[in-house]
Design a protein that fits this description.
homodimer, about 425 residues, alpha+beta, BirA Bifunctional Protein, domain 2, Rossmann fold, nine-stranded mixed beta sheet, five-stranded mixed beta sheet, 17 helices, about 40% helix
Chain lengths: ~425, ~425
Amino acid sequence: MPAFKTVRGMRDFLPEEANMLKFIENKARRVAELYGYKEVVTPVVESYELLAAKAGEEVRSRMFVFKDLGGRDIALRPEFTASVARLVATTLRTEPKPLRLFSFGTVYRYDEPQKGRYREFWQSNYELMGSNKPEGDAEILMLTDSLMEASGLKKYVFKVGHVGVLRGIFVQEGLEDTVQNVVMQRMDKKEYEVALKMVRDAGVSENCVNILQKLVKIKGSEIFEIVEKMKTVVKGYDKAVSAVENLNAILKLIVESGCKMDVVVDAGFARGLEYYTGMIFEVYVPEFDIALGGGGRYDQLIELFGGEPTPAVGVAHGIDRIMLALQMQKAEIETREKSVMVIPIKEELKGEALKVSRLLREADIPAEVEVMGRKVTAALEDANRRRMSYAIIVGEKELKENAVAIRNLAKREQKIVKIEKLVETIKGQNV
Amino acid sequence: MPAFKTVRGMRDFLPEEANMLKFIENKARRVAELYGYKEVVTPVVESYELLAAKAGEEVRSRMFVFKDLGGRDIALRPEFTASVARLVATTLRTEPKPLRLFSFGTVYRYDEPQKGRYREFWQSNYELMGSNKPEGDAEILMLTDSLMEASGLKKYVFKVGHVGVLRGIFVQEGLEDTVQNVVMQRMDKKEYEVALKMVRDAGVSENCVNILQKLVKIKGSEIFEIVEKMKTVVKGYDKAVSAVENLNAILKLIVESGCKMDVVVDAGFARGLEYYTGMIFEVYVPEFDIALGGGGRYDQLIELFGGEPTPAVGVAHGIDRIMLALQMQKAEIETREKSVMVIPIKEELKGEALKVSRLLREADIPAEVEVMGRKVTAALEDANRRRMSYAIIVGEKELKENAVAIRNLAKREQKIVKIEKLVETIKGQNV
């Protein structure tokens, strides 16, 4: 019989990795609570029509698409935003704004598998709907910082830009939306020469080409100097100037809040997705060149899904990548709690062993019972190998005195304890 | 534009329901920890071959099956056991036993949607691999009881049986496996007449038919009396007698452990799935007739997946159904924690408001910042409507004294508090 395997691009999380995944999930959920984001859980399977409505061609071609038994075109979600937008445009249509929504789960893309990239991967997703203010943008950046810090990352940098700057120039030059989108995609891939040729071919002014050439080189961590430079360069393009001012307001709020995030402002930064309308950002660690998360403002998105016009800003974090970064930065996650193995010295005492295990669990102490029918020495060896904290040996003689033997496995010390004192003995680490 | 909808049979969890789902998920994970089960996270997408290896025809025909872009036959998992068995037969092959594994997540079946039944649904899954002892079976029953209790269910009943009793009779009568399976399926559907006709047609003794007729009527909550009756009835069929003794040993351990679960023993109980080899059980609430969870012993399963012979016992719980039962039993889940809205009295103080919100969150207090640019009265109204606990109003005059105004929204009382005292004021509910 051939050994069964995971499907290409899919992964298993063994206990240690699963533990880390759940650790980050809990942090992400706590960050959501602390910032007032309510959780919604949407299905992994959505209609193809919904998921395709927002995705660019690139994402669309890499979706897991199929038909259900009823012949419907369905797909596995490649991200959360379409599902959340569906909710906001339908069930939650009349909810007062602001509406803060959080999701956590798996998403699916048919990418070539590589380090930190799987075809099923985990995301946390936060959307703030209804606010067009810079404090909304600042909040999304700050909560991302909170999650990175809570996860235990030691070093990470925010790359921040604003699609309104380039878009503002293009609009004033009369560039069509479709051309704008293609140019933005090229810029996202840092193919500036190709992008410049495209805008030149589209007939923009020579002044515009000069400005674009200067703009894509403006980048750095002296954020307010960079913003000043951008403002000087785009002078004359009113919408671009407003965009720079908006970026300035967002960054100013973050500094005023006392949040100490590392930020690099990049004027040539253009996230590929067509729907961004304002501030955009990504988070990086020094260890590798894939973003741990990214997002920005998309004020037209909810309308695209048939909802009321609703300004919105959001972010998605790649949990598998955060895990990889944590492993590379050798960050420590919470240590294991005390655990106990309960061993009956003979067949007839198995019920008593189960009784002791119940007592411990009711006091919130993890307890395993010997279920292999092994002798005490063999069971102790196993408990040692698995680095458990204590073994409790249930014997006839001690039971007559309502007591059991408790053994500190690391110290190799053992003593007799009354069953009624067992919980406080273990919680007080008094053995 | 047509409104987008969820795909038929799929559901959204809005914040209140998502909260309940996550509450039960946390309880399930804590039960796993308390009983020593390590979490593994396996993919939603598995090879069709793997998932079909164990599933009976009924489940197989209701799987979401499709091809990926590489032409592989893949499917959405209809349950967890096949994936866990894959792990145990491959990656975890050499892990010492016992191996206790826990999983939590979504599974997919193309069933007709109805109350408590969706095509995407949530399960918690526990598998104990390597133990063939009755204390293993008892543990799976006890942890199910722990989960039901921890979830807040007030009343639930375990229905317990043992496939070894019927199988033991069939084997001694020389009934072929394939016939046995079909008969067991009929019995699972309580079509006893059809089942009896089948075994009669297969040429079993008249004594056997009589015994089966008696057996399927033996059922009740006086568990040890019921077990005695079963033993008397199956006399002469040695394997069936052993099975009854095994069931007796499991139930005795549970009683000895002090666990007070409600149990009904049902001699005619036969879970449909072909792979059960020993004790089987399901949990019910009085409110409706669908099981909240079920499981049992399947000692040949790991071999079926190409692994070493490994006795195993496990259980899956239907989380959507537990939620439905909780709602019907009007069980209370944990109440909301205190929450705060931070409101700047003017534009220029937005940075200060963000600063105050950071201070609160760093002290683990949920805080939302006003992001709509509303006046204080409008923001307060919103905070009231959403039943938040406190509003903090950031004003110029108070800031000069390093203070803010804090308002208890329920009491409609307000006072000025130094920023450095803010956290202790809120935690001490001193306003």
